[in-house]
Write a structure and sequence with these properties.
The chain is an alpha+beta fold and 213 residues long. It is 19% helix and 33% strand.
Length: 213
Amino acid sequence: MAIKLDNNGLRAYVEYCGHPRPTDGRLHLLAMRGCRRYPAEGVVISLVEPIPDSFDDMCGFLGSDLNLYAGTVDPGRHYSLHPMRPKEGCAHLVGIDEPGGKPYSYKRGLHRGKAWAFVQEGPVVVWRDKSRDMVQQPDEMPRSESAIGLNIHRMGTIRSSIGRWSAGCLGVVDRWWSEFWKRSAVAHPQESYTLYLMDFGRYAHWYDHERAA
């Protein structure tokens, strides 16, 4: 099933998940796990079966503007097997519709001191893949962490694997990064941006329930 996204629906879903409604008159960052976009008028996306180490998610923005671009919200296979914290495992960001998840604060900055990106500002909630299988196990519980450099930056091509592009960061594939950056950071300069990470499967279930009500 394909769903055409709109600001009202996304704002309502944020409230449904128990978080404050996104502030009007501002641009907010948006990420959707497990979906793809259809070449239709507006932002129309549908569910996809998650494939580890692939660009099967979308990142973009809502509020003052609305759009989503192909990317990832999860780390690639390389850092999952060879995490920067070997005893703890690679970090996976927890969404607003998952236990412990919440909106996160980001600002414009440099990823690894080199390229423009949205950089983590304040704590984030992650689960760490100690088992190194890219699947959350019952004992891999969410926890709050600060200053781990979990940024949103340019990544590889849609046809490539995530590989070394992400050790936990979110990203937009190279083809769409320039448009994403111009329509967000350049067109809407703000001191900070709130990121809302959602699971599209959960959003679609809520959407169907709302339509049936």
